[in-house]
Design brief:
Length: 188
């Protein structure tokens, strides 16, 4: 089955059941996704604007890269695949670091029930916006924001950032702020 996804138990372990992305959400089955926060060499965060044709949050401002973990993939495999698919950037040109994982359940509609483990990553690379080749089926545009602006977006309920990512973004900002203040800056 192309684009098949492993169904997980409540602890995040595979059950052996495999479903399509459509069925995973229609049935509200637990699964794993990745969220990647990509920073350029100047420490600015790349944000994406979702395509108007995607099935959730069309046209919304969201984090750098999002993706479902396919059957047989690790979440790191998915980060690397989605970085290339969504943004056209080679994973060899960025330094990727796992930050944390958490579970979130959200009912977006009767046919889109999101019950997922989110594996959250940060990455740093030397790229320009002109290097990004966005997949127009998923991404309608990209922009770079200063870290301080990102921190503000994460803490402001009225910001343009999609609200389901705001709690996560606050934790990302918290952990990365600690590393920046300790001068533990990650390089590519």
């Amino acid at each position: 089955m192309k684009n098949a996804i492993d169904v997980l138990d409540d602890c995040g372990l595979r059950t052996g059941e495999v479903l399509s992305r459509l069925d995973i959400h229609r049935l509200g089955k637990v699964h794993r996704v990745i969220h990647l926060y990509l920073f350029d060499a100047k420490g600015r965060l790349l944000l994406q604007r979702r395509s108007l044709t995607v099935d959730h949050f069309p046209g919304a401002l969201t984090i750098s890269v999002l993706g479902h973990v396919d059957t047989g993939e690790s979440s790191m495999d998915t980060v690397e695949r989605e970085l290339e698919e969504e943004l056209g950037l080679s994973p060899e040109k960025v330094s990727i670091r796992f930050l944390f994982s958490y579970r979130r359940d959200a009912v977006l509609s009767d046919e889109y029930i999101d019950r997922q483990f989110n594996d959250v990553y940060a990455a740093w690379g030397d790229f320009q916006l002109s290097d990004v080749i966005a997949d127009d089926k998923e991404v309608s545009g990209v922009s770079l924001v200063e870290f301080a602006e990102f921190v503000g977006m994460a803490s402001d309920p009225g910001s343009a950032l999609v609200d389901v990512y705001r709690d996560e973004a606050r934790d990302v900002a918290y952990f990365l702020s600690k590393q920046i203040s300790a001068k533990r800056v990650y390089t590519f």
